[in-house]
């Protein structure tokens, strides 16, 4: 770095050690502020203090008071396991801001007392002169004092996919990465005053919205909990009216209340979401928060990045114009099989052009491995090497004098034994060349397609400086570069629109590039609205109104812009999915309903802030995850219907007992009800939570209503529940009648109770298959192998409850008689026939 160091010494010489120490004491170390998130103990306690957890704690306490310690322990264990799992998920997610600190380098080279010195990056102060070269991480906000061919990757802050080339007096930001060149920069801000710290603050303070699933489950649990308490109080009143001892009446009411609390709901929901998350992981979508699974299904607006998500993140030459003709590349990216087509004279001209272009790009190359080309270096320079390989041009880079790219010249040049080679922006290269008919028209045509155009020129001879080299040139041609769209992204976008999901491209790239890609993949809406971040309305309501249209493109956005966009769309009632890969995306990813980070190319910060990580950076993976999320919502409604149907059958015996004034015996004991909830119902409910998406899943908007709506209530309380309950009560009554209705015979009562218990279990077996669809008959719904296995397990558990001592005596029901088995088995056709009739009527009335 002799040139830069010498120039820097002539300008400032850096600070003295004494002055640097004084400023360090005054302003503090150059470190990002520690995250201000909640203490882990507080996060853990929150998982045990939400409404559902409190309801289950109360149920556990009441079960203990009622003399059922085993049940009390089981309920408490459910709360602890679910709370611990949720804590682990949230704790990991809340470390996003902390990961920003890892982007600050630990060491830096500065000039102190006129000499280069390596110091801890934390000791940097404003005014320090820092020496940078390729491979360094910028450790503070700074102003460029001296520069030589500096290239900086700012994508993590700006979202811009192309490296920038700061000139003297330009700013460089902490956390960015020097890809090429060297510079001496003067520190202007450290620690909490840097732009990186500002983004950390945004990420830390962005409020993660409550998921739709959490809101819906809260409503469900609130309603069910209030009903359970109300029923318990009512039965206590009935017990008192019947003259029961107050203590016995209280314990009876407590048992009924505990029985009606949905102990199995929380583990069923958690395990169903976990299985869906596992399925998504197999499809390259890693879920970091379980409730994000269902939130994905509720998504109504996707704000997607461009580079790497809609595109392949592989810069490639797609067209080449030369004075001898044009050449097209068929097959893009880094695939060796791509074909280059054109007339022989044009192909020969492209080979000459490619040689000069490669000479000007000596720091990049491609490695050939396992029939793949692996890029190394600046993406644009890699694209030139790939072009040379495709046209079989010489890619050797002999010893040469290089005049690197400069942002003021906007071109670079190389002098070697074959002459002078120059590449750069067309408007910076063409004025140095002899007239080339058709070149300006070609530039306009290629630029209108949103392609990045590079001019390549050369001349024979030698030169001693760039002023001498970059003159009297001959234009070899124009290379049009593009990061091509992914192959199936157009189909994925069409599927989103079929599903009623609006789309917007939100990117840091140039508006023309963003528009071209959006148009090419079919994302750009009919009004063709493209707006830059600097032109967004200051008022959030106006911003929401502007963006609440399908196919909007927002270019050159800042982190604050993305955050405002997420909030503005949420205020208009949208469930927003926001994609991102850089540090700059952290705040918006955290604030969106679904933050989607890139796993292959994204930063740790983005991944930690997100709810979903795409392992393949593919937009189509988002769409697949949305489909699974919608299927999960439908599955939750399935097993809620299943659970509620069982609750109707469980409560009916108590209703019969109360309405008869105690003269009609209880068909079920409280422990039998709990055995149904936790013992026999759990696995079939989980199997219903594993149903695959049906062909209609992505047709029309996502369901925006409650988990328990009129349809669920009618099926559970008006169709399936009554059928199952009446069949079980009929079996109970007929067994008592066959035994002479001797209510003083404990054996007869136990047999009748066991028959009712068996009838409900078998009815739930039929109910499980009926709940697979709200419209389709059972005969066409035999494709869920998990459900078949769960039903077999359910029958095995039933046998244990009926035949394995001391469980029959403990539960209060013994094995049915042969007549009882027949009567219990009749519950299966009763449930299926009633369900089929209801579905037939719905189809007729539809």
Automatic annotation (TrEMBL):
Keyword Transmembrane helix annotated: yes
Pfam families reported for this sequence: Cation_ATPase_C, Cation_ATPase_N, E1-E2_ATPase, Hydrolase
InterPro entries: ATPase_P-typ_cation-transptr_C, ATPase_P-typ_cation-transptr_N, ATPase_P-typ_cyto_dom_N, ATPase_P-typ_P_site, ATPase_P-typ_TM_dom_sf, ATPase_P-typ_transduc_dom_A_sf, ATPase_P-type_domA, Cation_transp_ATPase_P-type
Location(s), subcellular: Cell membrane
Keywords: ATP-binding, Cell membrane, Membrane, Nucleotide-binding, Translocase, Transmembrane, Transmembrane helix
The keyword Transmembrane is assigned to this record: yes
Alphabetized GO MF terms: ATP binding; ATP hydrolysis activity
Catalysed reaction equations from the record: ATP + H2O = ADP + phosphate + H(+)
SMART domains for this protein: Cation_ATPase_N
Coiled coil location: none
GO cellular component: plasma membrane
Family: Belongs to the cation transport ATPase (P-type) (TC 3.A.3) family. Type IIA subfamily.
Protein name (record): P-type E1-E2 ATPase
Organism field: Saccharothrix carnea
Biological classification of the source: Bacteria, Bacillati, Actinomycetota, Actinomycetes, Pseudonocardiales
């Amino acid at each position: 770095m002799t040139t830069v160091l010498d120039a820097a010494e002539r300008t400032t010489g850096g600070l003295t050690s004494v002055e640097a120490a004084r400023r360090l004491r005054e302003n503090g170390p150059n470190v990002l502020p520690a995250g201000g998130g909640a203490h882990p103990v507080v996060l853990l306690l929150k998982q045990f203090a939400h409404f559902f957890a409190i309801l289950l704690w109360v149920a556990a306490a009441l079960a203990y008071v009622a003399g059922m310690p085993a049940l009390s322990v089981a309920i408490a264990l459910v709360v602890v396991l679910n709370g611990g799992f949720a804590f682990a998920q949230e704790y990991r997610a809340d470390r996003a801001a902390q990961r920003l600190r890892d982007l600050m380098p630990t060491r830096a080279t500065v000039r102190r007392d006129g000499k280069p010195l390596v110091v801890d990056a934390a000791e940097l102060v404003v005014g320090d002169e820092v020496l940078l070269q390729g491979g360094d991480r910028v450790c503070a906000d700074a102003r460029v004092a001296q520069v030589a061919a500096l290239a900086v990757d700012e994508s993590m802050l700006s979202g811009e996919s192309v490296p920038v080339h700061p000139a003297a007096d330009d700013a460089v930001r902490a956390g960015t990465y020097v890809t090429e060149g060297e510079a001496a920069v003067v520190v202007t801000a450290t620690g909490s005053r840097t732009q990186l710290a500002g983004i950390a603050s945004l990420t830390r303070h962005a409020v993660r919205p409550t998921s739709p699933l959490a809101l819906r489950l809260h409503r469900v649990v609130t309603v069910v909990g209030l009903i359970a308490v109300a029923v318990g109080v009512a039965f206590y009143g009935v017990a008192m009216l019947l003259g029961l001892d107050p203590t016995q009446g209280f314990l009876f009411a407590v048992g009924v209340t505990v029985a009606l609390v949905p102990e199995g709901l929380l583990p069923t929901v958690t395990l169903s979401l976990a299985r869906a998350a596992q399925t998504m992981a197999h499809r390259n979508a890693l879920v970091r928060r379980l409730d994000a699974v269902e939130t994905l299904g509720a998504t109504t607006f996707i704000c997607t990045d461009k580079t790497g998500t809609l595109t392949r993140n592989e810069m490639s030459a797609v067209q080449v114009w030369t004075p001898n003709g044009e050449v097209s590349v068929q097959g893009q990216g880094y695939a060796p099989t791509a074909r280059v087509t054109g007339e022989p004279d044009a192909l020969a001209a492209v080979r000459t052009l490619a040689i000069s272009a490669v000479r000007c790009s000596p720091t990049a190359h491609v490695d050939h491995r396992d029939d793949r080309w692996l890029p190394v270096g600046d993406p644009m320079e890699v694209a030139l090497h790939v072009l040379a390989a495709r046209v079989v041009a010489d890619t050797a880079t002999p010893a040469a004098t290089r005049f690197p790219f400069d942002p003021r010249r906007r071109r670079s040049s190389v002098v070697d034994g074959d002459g002078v080679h120059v590449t750069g922006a067309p408007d910076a290269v063409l004025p140095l060349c002899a007239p080339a008919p058709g070149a300006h028209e070609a530039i306009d045509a290629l630029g209108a397609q949103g392609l990045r155009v590079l001019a390549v020129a050369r001349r024979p001879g030698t030169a001693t400086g760039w002023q001498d080299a970059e003159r009297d040139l001959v234009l070899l041609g124009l290379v049009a570069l593009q990061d091509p769209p992914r192959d199936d992204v157009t189909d994925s976008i069409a599927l989103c629109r079929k599903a009623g999901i609006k789309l917007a491209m939100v990117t840091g790239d140039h508006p023309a590039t963003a528009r071209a890609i959006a148009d090419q993949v079919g994302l750009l809406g009919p009004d063709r609205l493209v707006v830059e971040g600097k032109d967004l309305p200051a008022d959030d309501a106006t911003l929401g109104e502007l963006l609440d249209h399908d196919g909007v493109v927002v270019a050159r956005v800042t982190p604050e812009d993305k955050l405002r966009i997420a909030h503005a769309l949420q205020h208009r009632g949208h469930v927003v999915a926001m994609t991102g890969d850089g540090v700059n995306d952290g705040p918006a990813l955290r604030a969106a309903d679904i933050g989607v980070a890139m796993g292959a190319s994204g930063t740790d910060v983005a991944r930690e802030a997100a709810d979903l990580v795409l392992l393949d950076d593919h937009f189509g993976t988002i769409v697949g995850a949305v489909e699974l999320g919608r299927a999960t919502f439908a599955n939750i409604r399935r097993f809620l219907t299943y659970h509620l149907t069982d609750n109707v059958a469980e409560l009916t015996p108590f209703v019969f007992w109360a309405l008869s004034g105690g003269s009609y015996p209880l068909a079920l004991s409280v422990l039998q009800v709990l055995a149904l909830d936790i013992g026999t119902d759990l696995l079939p409910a989980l199997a219903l939570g594993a149903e695959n998406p049906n062909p209609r899943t992505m047709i029309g908007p996502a369901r925006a209503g409650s988990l328990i709506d009129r349809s669920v209530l009618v099926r559970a309380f008006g169709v399936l529940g009554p059928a199952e309950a009446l069949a079980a009560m009929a079996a109970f009554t007929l067994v008592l009648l066959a035994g002479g209705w001797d209510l003083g015979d404990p054996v007869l009562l136990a047999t009748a109770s066991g028959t009712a218990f068996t009838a409900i279990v078998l009815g739930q077996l039929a109910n499980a298959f009926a709940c697979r669809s709200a419209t389709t008959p059972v005969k066409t719904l035999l494709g869920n192998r998990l459900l078949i296995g769960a039903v077999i397990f359910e029958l095995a558990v039933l046998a244990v409850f009926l035949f394995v001592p001391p469980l029959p005596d403990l539960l209060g029901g013994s094995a049915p008689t042969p007549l009882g088995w027949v009567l219990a088995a009749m519950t299966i056709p009763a449930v299926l026939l009633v369900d089929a009739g209801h579905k037939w009527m719905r189809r007729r009335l539809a």
